């Protein structure tokens, strides 16, 4: 089955700096890669996703890149703000319809 | 345009009791997925259902856990004879169609505490 690894597990940046979270996946048939943000005690919320026929996607301060050859995908947050502090999960969907999640990155944006 | 609904939001059970968790998908969505999140961990897939059918239950423990999505009403995740290790947040998600590229939208979760 699919296996998703995520790094780093914790990330602390100063307000205004950029944050990058990286994931790798194992199933070469995977073709959909969403990113979720989860605040304490809340539901995972989809913030951006990318499909396999696209190499990069951007939505305001958030961008995701995908390298299918290397089976890597990354989340980039620019001009970070305190409200970006949360746990971020990458995920992949392979041959089945179930999401396989990474282990999460706890992002702390300090003033 | 209500999102995915789950109830109860919090559930406390004593060891040996039954826990019943409900999930109503978004309007127009006929595919439901259940995930479990242990404290300080990521989400793990449990089961994928369509109306009246279990499509993939590869993540469900073999005993005590069952799920259904009847023709009418919400999807239900049932845990019999709960143990302390069942304490977790249980999230359901829904999507409008099948397929590996369909976005899944999550409900607020049910936080189960087993005493």
Quick recap of the structure?
Chain A is an all-beta fold and 111 residues long. Chain A has no helices and eleven strands.
Description:
The complex is a heterodimer of chains A (111) and B (115). By secondary structure, chain A is mostly beta strands. Chain A has no helices and eleven strands. Chain A has strands at 4-7, 10-14, 19-25, 32-38, 45-51, 56-59, 62-67, 72-77, 86-93, 99-101, 105-110. In chain A, the strands form two sheets. In chain A, strands 2, 4, 5, 9, 10 and 11 form a six-stranded mixed beta sheet that branches. In chain A, strands 1-3-8-7-6 form a five-stranded antiparallel beta sheet, with no helix packed on it. Chain A is globular, with a radius of gyration of 13 Å. The relative contact order of chain A is 0.35. Chain B is mainly β and 115 residues long. The N and C termini of chain B lie far apart (36 Å). Chain A binds chain B through residues 1, 30-32, 34, 36, 42-46, 49, 51, 89, 93-104, and chain B through 31, 33, 35, 41-45, 48, 55-56, 58-59, 91, 93, 95, 98-109.
Write the layout of secondary structure elements.
The complex is a heterodimer of chains A (111) and B (115).
Chain A: E1 4-7, E2 10-14, E3 19-25, E4 32-38, E5 45-51, E6 56-59, E7 62-67, E8 72-77, E9 86-93, E10 99-101, E11 105-110
Parallel strand pairs in A: 2-11
Antiparallel strand pairs in A: 1-3, 3-8, 4-5, 4-9, 6-7, 7-8, 9-10, 9-11
Chain B: E1 5-7, E2 10-13, E3 19-24, E4 31-37, E5 43-50, E6 53-56, E7 65-68, E8 75-79, E9 88-95, E10 105-106, E11 110-114
């Amino acid at each position: 089955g699919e296996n998703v690894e995520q790094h780093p597990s914790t990330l602390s940046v100063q307000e205004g700096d950029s944050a990058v979270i990286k994931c790798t996946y194992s199933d070469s048939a995977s073709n959909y890669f969403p990113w979720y943000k989860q605040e304490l005690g809340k539901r995972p919320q989809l913030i951006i996703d990318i499909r396999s026929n696209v190499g990069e996607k951007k939505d305001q301060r958030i961008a995701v890149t995908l390298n299918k050859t290397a089976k890597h995908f990354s989340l980039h947050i620019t001009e970070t703000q305190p409200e970006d502090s949360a746990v971020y999960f990458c995920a992949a969907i392979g041959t089945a319809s179930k999401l396989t999640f990474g282990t999460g990155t706890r992002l702390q944006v300090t003033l | 345009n209500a999102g995915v609904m789950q109830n109860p939001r919090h559930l406390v059970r004593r060891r040996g009791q039954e826990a019943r968790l409900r999930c109503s998908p978004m309007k127009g969505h006929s595919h439901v997925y259940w995930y479990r999140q242990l404290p300080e961990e990521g989400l793990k897939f449990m089961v994928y259902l369509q109306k009246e059918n279990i499509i993939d239950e590869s993540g469900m423990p073999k005993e005590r856990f069952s799920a259904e999505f009847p023709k009418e009403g919400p999807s239900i995740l049932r845990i019999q004879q709960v143990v302390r290790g069942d304490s977790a947040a249980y999230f359901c998600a829904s999507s409008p169609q099948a397929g590996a590229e369909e976005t899944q939208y999550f409900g607020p979760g049910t936080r189960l505490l087993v005493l």
